[in-house]
Amino acid sequence: MDNFLPGSASLVDCVDKKLLVILRDSRKLIGWLRSYDQFANLVLQDTVERTYVGDSYGEVYRGIFVIRGENVVLLGEIDKEKEAAAIGMLRQLPVEEIKELHKREMDIKRQTDKARSRVLQERGFSVDGQEQNDQY
Amino acid sequence: MLFYSFFKTLVGKQVTVELKNDLEIRGTLVSVDQFLNIKLDDVHVVDEQKYPHMMSVKNCFVRGSVVRYVSLPAQHVDTALLQDAARREAQAGR
C-alpha cells in the first residue's frame, strides 16, 4: 500500500486524523487513526461508536481499538465544518434509546431481507450465503 | 496488475464507486493501489438521506474488497488499449 509512486493509495495521510470507520457489521466508529498496515488493520484512539436511526444518533465511548482489516469497509476523513453541520441537523439521544430504536430497525430489515430471499429462492435465484454475514 | 495500471490512468477523473452494500459514492479518484483500494476526494453520496453518517466526510478510502462497481466516464476509457492489454496479459499467463 505504501509504495512511493505518485497515485498509489496510502493511509499515511490519514494518520493522526479523525476518521469515520465503517465496519462490515455496519458499525460506525469515529476516532483518531494512529497506525495501519498493508491489510488495512487499524489502530484507532479515543474511539466513539455512533449509531444513527432516522434523524437521531447515539454515542458510546470505546477507547482504543485495533481493527482487523478484513472487517473494514470504508474510512472517511471527518471534515470539521461538515461534521458540525451534520450534527446540527440531527438530535442526540441517550444510548439505551438509540440501541432500542436501532434494534427495531434491524429487526424490520431482517424480516424484509428474509422475505426477499424466500421470494428469490422460490423463483430459482440463489442467495449468496457468504454475504448474509455482512450487514453494512 | 492490469486493472491497477488501468485505474492509475484515471487518477484525477470523476468516478462513482458502488459498494457491495449498494452505497454509491461519487468523487475524484485520488489514488489506487495493488489491492484496488480506492481513495476519493470531494465525495458525494448518491442517496444522501439514507446514509447520514457520510454527511461529515469529504475524502475517503474504500477497501478494494468491498467494491462492486466503479463507474467511469466513457470518454476517458480507451477500450481498444484495454482489450489489447487484456489479450497480452492472458497470453503471458498461459
Name its key features.
heterodimer; A: 136 residues; alpha+beta; SH3 type barrels; 6-stranded mixed beta sheet; 6 strands; globular; B: 94 residues; 5-stranded antiparallel beta sheet; 5 strands; 23% helix; 36% strand; elongated
Describe this structure in words.
Chain B: It holds the Pfam family LSM. Chain B: Keywords: mRNA processing, mRNA splicing, Nucleus, Ribonucleoprotein, RNA-binding, Spliceosome. Chain B: Component of LSm protein complexes, which are involved in RNA processing and may function in a chaperone-like manner. The complex is a heterodimer of chains A (136) and B (94). By secondary structure, chain A is of the alpha+beta class. Chain A has a single domain (7-122), classed as Roll (SH3 type barrels). Chain A has helices spanning 80-89, 95-122, and strands at 18-23, 28-36, 42-53, 56-67, 72-78, 91-92. Chain A contains two helices and six strands, in the order βββββαβα. The longest helix of chain A is centred in the C-terminal third of the chain and has 28 residues, at 95-122. Helices cover 28% and strands 35% of the residues of chain A. In chain A, strand 3 (42-53) and strand 4 (56-67) form a beta hairpin. In chain A, strands 5-1-2-3-4-6 form a six-stranded mixed β-sheet. Chain B is α+β, with helices and mostly antiparallel strands. Chain B has a single domain, classed as SH3 type barrels, CATH 2.30.30. Chain B has helices spanning 2-8, 79-93, and strands spanning 14-19, 24-32, 38-45, 57-62, 67-71. Chain B has a five-stranded antiparallel β-sheet with strand order 4-3-2-1-5. In chain B, strand 1 and strand 2 (24-32) form a beta hairpin. Chains A and B meet through strand 5 and helix 1 of A and strand 2, strand 3 and strand 4 of B. Strand 5 (72-78) of chain A pairs antiparallel with strand 4 of chain B, so a sheet runs across the interface.
List the helices and strands and how they pair.
The complex is a heterodimer of chains A (136) and B (94).
Chain A: E1 18-23, E2 28-36, E3 42-53, E4 56-67, E5 72-78, H1 80-89, E6 91-92, H2 95-122
Chain B: H1 2-8, E1 14-19, E2 24-32, E3 38-45, E4 57-62, E5 67-71, H2 79-93
Antiparallel strand pairs in B: 1-2, 1-5, 2-3, 3-4
